[in-house]
From TrEMBL:
Domain GS beta-grasp: 15-100
Signal peptide positions (record): none
Native organism: Microbacterium lacticum
Domain GS catalytic, chain residue ranges per copy: 107-445
GO molecular function, one term: glutamine synthetase activity
Protein name, as recorded: L-glutamine synthetase
Residues engaged in binding ATP: 182, 245-247, 314
Amino acid sequence: MDKQRDFVLRTIEERGVKFVRLWFTDVIGTLKSVAIAPAEVEGAFTEGLGFDGSAIEGLTRSYESDLLAHPDPTTFQTLPWRGEIDPTARMFCDITTPDGQPAVADPRHVLKRTLAKAADAGFTFYTHPEIEFYLLKSSSFGPDGPEPVDSAGYFDNVPGGTAHDFRRRSVRMLEDLGISVEYSHHEGGPGQNEIDLRYADALATADNIMTFRTVVKEVAIEQGVYATFMPKPLSGKPGSGMHTHMSLFEGDHNAFYEEGAQYQLSRVGRQFIAGLLTHANEIAAVTNQFVNSYKRLWGGDEAPSFICWGHNNRSALVRVPMYKPNKGQSTRVEYRALDPAANPYLAYALLLAAGLKGIEEGYELPPEAEDNVWSLTDAERRALGYAQLPASLDHALEYMEDSELVAETLGEQVFNYVLLNKRREWQEYRAQVTPFELKSNLEML
């Protein structure tokens, strides 16, 4: 770590960095940033930077508000959108109490704690997210809702289109930040795009997602458009997901791979999927944390609504992608409910905890879904044992409230804060009178 710190201090000097932003997230997953002068960086490494934690959503209770942000030197990067004028860098931080203990409500620590539990069982957790978002002409909207930048569709090539330039600039910026991009393309909705990040360990991925959301917002501003990670911004159009491919490794060996097994999927892999299915409803209030998230889950267009798994079945909640011959290391499972508005630290902690629980308890994997699950009748789905995902945030909170797994993984403070914050959101949503009701009822009743 000392070598890494020396590298950071040397790079700041060599590149003439004028500001260093210290980044961390609140419990909802909003990025927080404080800029310090280069002269303060060494002190931040040794002592941390003090701040009032009670001013940050869910981070601490008011009577224990003093917290310290400790920059992680391995996350140091200069910010490409700042250009050559006043070069600026960033580092992610770990949050501690004044006596050096990890802050219990630091989302990054929640994930680190769960990764440590996986490490005790001999596993490293790798993730690869496919992040969808919409490009809109602006953040304001009229009676017809937000206006997308184009009317293109899935994989469309739009000559001279905004999205081309946007994706090219975003990908280049992400690569400049050391974040490897696997694919980028136009998605199914008008103005909808997808950029997939390359496999990395889950902590690096969560950091990368926070950086990704910032890069996409910055490039949008630069190009005079607006980017949103809202799960369902346009009525009647596809929602935005963050399908995540996951695998556990034991050293250099992919623990999900077993040569000759069905889909080359090992017993560990099958138990991991069984854990995801068993606990899907309990973790939904975190993987899908907004009222709007459930408009996506129940809006069709390839969003999963039922708890089942399948091989290459895009209507299933968990998919086992096609096996590539001679590439055993690529065996993985894809969780399709997660959306891009989730706090990635908490969401990945819970997905990992659910999978590990399946392995620890030896959960049995039910038969796979071979049909298009959306085209079945309710009676057929019931007969096959496909339970529903929660239909609303309120429904998801009921499951979460009774979940030992979620309480244990998040810790008491984060668990209680999420419940409190999300109940408030549901109450405010439920209390409003919507345009739909006025249009349907005002003149008729």
